[in-house]
UniProtKB/TrEMBL annotation:
EC top class, as a word: oxidoreductase
Enzyme Commission number(s) of this protein: 1.2.7.4
Gene name for this UniProt entry: cooS
Cofactor(s) essential for the protein: [4Fe-4S] cluster
Chain sites annotated for binding [4Fe-4S] cluster 2: C56, C59, C64, C78
NCBIfam families for this protein: CO_DH_cata (TIGR01702)
GO molecular function annotation: 4 iron, 4 sulfur cluster binding; anaerobic carbon-monoxide dehydrogenase activity; hydroxylamine reductase activity; nickel cation binding; peroxidase activity
Record key words, sorted: 4Fe-4S, Iron, Iron-sulfur, Metal-binding, Nickel, Oxidoreductase
Origin superkingdom: Bacteria
Name listed for the protein in its UniProt record: Carbon monoxide dehydrogenase
Pfam families on file: Prismane
An annotated GO BP: response to hydrogen peroxide
Record: residues binding [Ni-4Fe-4S] cluster: H269, C305, C343, C454, C484, C525
Amino acid sequence: MSQEEKKQKPINFRDVSICEATIQMLEKAAKDGVETAFTRAAEMKPCPIGADSACCKHCFMGPCRLNSKDPYAKTGICGATIDTIAARNFARMVASGAAAHTDHGMSMLDVFREVVNGRIKDYQIKDETKLRNVAASIGIEVEGRETMDIAKDLYEELERTYTQVEGEIPFAKRVPPKTLETWHKLGIVPRGAMREIMEIMHRTHIGVDQEYNNIVKQCSRTALSDGWGGSMVATELSDILFGTPKPIVAGVNMGYLKEDEVNIIVHGHEPNLFESMISSVNDPANIEKAKAAGAKGINLLGMCCSGAEVLGRHGIPHAGNFMSTEAVIVTGAVDAMAVDVQCIMQALSKLSECYGTRFFTTNPRAKIDGATHIEFHEHTPRECTDKIVEMAVNRFQNRTARIEIPNRRDLGIHGFSHEYVNYMLGGKFRGSYTPLNENIINGRIRGVAGVVGCTNIRVKHDYVHVECVKELIKNNVLVVQTGCSQISLAKAGLMKPDAAVLAGDGLREVCETVGMPPVLSLGSCVDNSRILIACAEMVRTGGLGDSIADLPVAGAAPEYMSEKAISIGHYFVASGVYTIFGVTFPSIEGTKFHKLLFEGLEEQGLGKWDFAVDPIEMAHKMIAHIDKKRMALGIMGERERKLFSMEDRRVS
Ligand code: NFS
Ligand code: SF4
């Protein structure tokens, strides 16, 4: 076969995704002669040296590349070893991921400050109970005080999450004492996130920190300033401003696009843009404009993490996760897409042009070549979103693209919060985590797994998430989810109470008794902080050890692709959670740096990193860890003991 023929060999899209709607749209794109990430990936092999994190371009004597076969055979020009190079690269990923989450949290903090000052009128404090609870959790006096007084104090405290030069971030007060003690011992309790991120950038400059243990310590401190800092601020303030999610039936998939309505998609991460768009599309004047243009109405959908937040908070349908973002445009049905920050493929701009979709950037941090920029200002949010609605209506009127909407709609329950867990398993009047802990202790629930994160073209889209989660619930592990991963599982139908039939006997019994699905949808990626709080609450409730590291829990990001995922993974590890990633891992097995992440940190009392590509292997590694913790807690029943030893034999 000639080079040309090889290149043009058509991709069987069933090999690259299990999402029927995405597959259908990829086929349409191929017919339309349009390229997507799926076709580009076939032409672009990942660089093996980069994949191993064995190259360094931190100075212009390099870039230097080390050989992965014997990584200790050489060093970089400056003498940097593979451990230094890989640790520094890893640290920069943590810094970038943590910066993304904390800057997002900072935007929420900006809105909150202006609401408290009375300078923003379009948003209000929606959940006063949550405001009081969050304030009380970090030692702010709430008894007998006015909401706005508490809010002022809360603002000032939370600002310290970012700016304080010494001392501990406010939410360190939520960390179980034993876990905090370990952090103190290791010197990894974060100061303000700005300081931690600045220090990481300094330390990873050429010629500064060249001892991998010390670099990883700063990774932990910085990642923790994300998880218990910026991300937690983002979640808590979003709940306070826009409402804490409660379980709600909502739909996922491209079938929620409507041919006879003006379709608008909001894609990105910050809920303030989305909230304003909700207000715009519900404004009778805007609906009138749409009707005057011949549309039945305005149809609003979410995508990626922006979508994941409003899916749980307001029940707004979700069009698709990261690897479906292009496919959604290919429907031709999207009249406007408004994006803010993070995980927005640059390709969406050109693709939108092909299909006549109006594509808008809204955040000063994120402009995209070819996009129309309409800046969003929190003080006058409707100006931006009304304009976008107007342009969407205009596009509806002038549609020329052939429209094909995949006929797939998947309903499920979304919007679980760490607060809701209190009421979920009984205890209507006095909520607590006791029923959850009891069900773990008695073995009906073997443990809890957080399966989160992106989707990635380098593995079969949605497949790794879905198979891993199915295997976990089959083995009585309750699964909690955020981000793009939860969209994969929602499409697979696992967020319906009747998915309990796929669970093992114990978990099934619990789910059927209370009518909950075996897989719980918690929100966006910053909402991973809900999982941290839930872990802290499980420790506080008692019976499952003294620290997060004692809990029979595990985390996974089976199809991750972003640096944010590395920061999340590392804050879970530093918090004491066993965390396993798929796709690829940025280090070379056998190196000292790799061993530190995969073994050493656990010996220091933290969690540990692990890696597996196969979803079943991944699930069983998580289960083996959960069982190890159950053994240590002395709650391994007879039945589990047998399974455990069988597992042991299989693994060894
Ligand atoms: Ni998380 Fe959200 Fe999705 Fe990954 Fe991107 S949207 S913040 S990074 S791809 S889960
Ligand atoms: Fe090479 Fe050292 Fe420069 Fe990195 S810092 S590019 S290893 S000389």
